Amino acid sequence: MAEQEEPLLDAFIDVYMNSLKYLDEFVSEPAKAFHLSFEQYLILQEITRHQNVTLMDIASQRQVTRSAISRQIKVLLRQGYLRQTPDENDRRRLYLLATPAGVEAERLIRQRITRRFQGWVDVYGEERAREILRFIRDFSQVTRMKK
Predict the structure, then answer these.
(1) CA neighbor of 42 nearest in space, from 64, 21, 20, 22
(2) What residues does the HTH marR-type domain cover (predicted)?
């Protein structure tokens, strides 16, 4: 790498260390009051929005292993936000259903996320927010192609 590029690299590292790595914390904070990670909230949201969702459906959609989703679902079951019910035609197939507490938690977390996001849009403006989103999508696509 040429010496003239080092300040740019240093600036990227600085932005990562002082900003980007805290983006996850910014996104996940609304779910913390319910003792959930953002990933667990997204699973709960999927289950409240759709019927007959299985663990494998979620794993396939997120392109992760069954065991990765299973660990997240165990927390949601233990917290009382989900329950499982067997398929009437195939008792081995378990559907995930949100409990009333799960439906309420999803609703309240969604409200908090919406308020938090709207605050972000209010600061940057909708067009700048769309530009940031386009850049992140482009960056993600390019980095996946380079793997």
Answers:
(1) 64
(2) 1-141
